[in-house]
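Incident log, structure service

09:12 report received: a user says their structure output differs between two submissions of the same chain.
09:20 pulled the input from the user's history:
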Amino acid sequence: MLGRVRDWFGFGPMTEGFSGHGHDHGDGRHGHTHGVIDPTIATTTRGIWAIKWSFVVLAITAALQLVVVFLSGSVALLADMIHNVGDAVTAIPLWIAFVLARRKPSKTFTYGLGRVEDLAGIVIVLIILFSAVVAGYEAIDRLINPRPIAFLGWVAIAGLIGFIGNEAVAVFRIRVGREINSAALIADGYHARTDGFTSLAVVLGAIGVWLGFPLADPIIGLLITVAIFAIVWQSSKAVLTRMLDGVEPGVIDEIHHAADHVSGIGRVEGVQARWIGHRLHADVAISVADKATAKDVLGVTEALKEELFAHLPALAEANVRLVSPAGSAVTGAEASHAHHHATEPFKVACDLAEGTLEIVDTAAGERMRLTIERHTDDLTATVIIDRPNGPETLRLEAVADNHHRLESTVAPDEPHEFQANLVLTAKDREQVLPFKMVEPEGHHH
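09:34 re-ran on a clean worker, output below:
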């Protein structure tokens, strides 16, 4: 019975409910930040539900405290109310992001509107910062010009309401966090419990004033304001980091860890990742053995993608590129000095698409281009070239959001006469089309 009571109030082991994992996902460090929702919460229906109800409870708590603030003039209660509002409005960017995420990408916003979540986070941090400045000003003014506080009993009750509201949210978040295996939500629960003890400081301030020490209220208010400024500093760093395409070091470590589970990868040559809202996008460059065939490369690429999606629940897109073991690739500057040898185009004709694949000159240099006359929805194309030193992979991307023209982002290596496979995928279908590029007479190396 005692164990059940401890679990109900969140004092059980934080790792309970996390069994079944052979390794740790991420670095395990989940801080509490306003304006940023951890993806382990945002990607689950239960987690979203927990955030919404936490918002309701804390909003009601703050509203009740606000009434007493106007009646009593307590600065300590004002600061605590602002603190609770800050915790409550954390859910707002999540709601905004989910409403806007339903809109499909457009020619202008090709990645969708996930960045609105970051903008909402900045607005929330600025609102809390402004409120903290107001609370700090009021606390300092009361220290310099003391004024009596009315309704001390109601101030103490409002402090207790703040404690009860935060404790209810703490228990709720910890319980749901264990249900969905979210260390971030559990951490938020324990943070809410700490906020509850901050509310109890308001009660101590009211008792101090009642005992004849009127400065107790503004002193408590100033201390709570300092705590709010610390939260604003931490949260602003988190929001700005995501806006500048920064990720937690644990994300990169987890990508490397996922690659360790895939046989056939020579080494991970490079990793890039960024957040778009609460969804993660990753770009991984790998090398494989020189003797690997095109089929082997496809198998390794698909296996790595499966591991990445398994290890990173917030992952929305994974792009795997194949590079030489030295990590070198033809750059735009090198490509601009190459000479196009006018290889014969390859006519593409299959169930997924019809068109022409060729090597063309562009302003950025030579590129592999697929011009499509007909294709199915969600078509993606990859060219895998057989080279003596190992396969060369070129992913073809839409040019200027034109889904009828797909081009590689780099130039194909020399020579331009080679055997290759064009891999077309659309939803659950895939077709591999072998082809050969042949240079016209007089252009051979």
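09:41 both user submissions now match this output. Likely a transient worker issue. Closing.
09:42 reviewer note: Residues 8-31, 326-341 have pLDDT under 50 and may be disordered. The first helix runs from residue 2 to 8.
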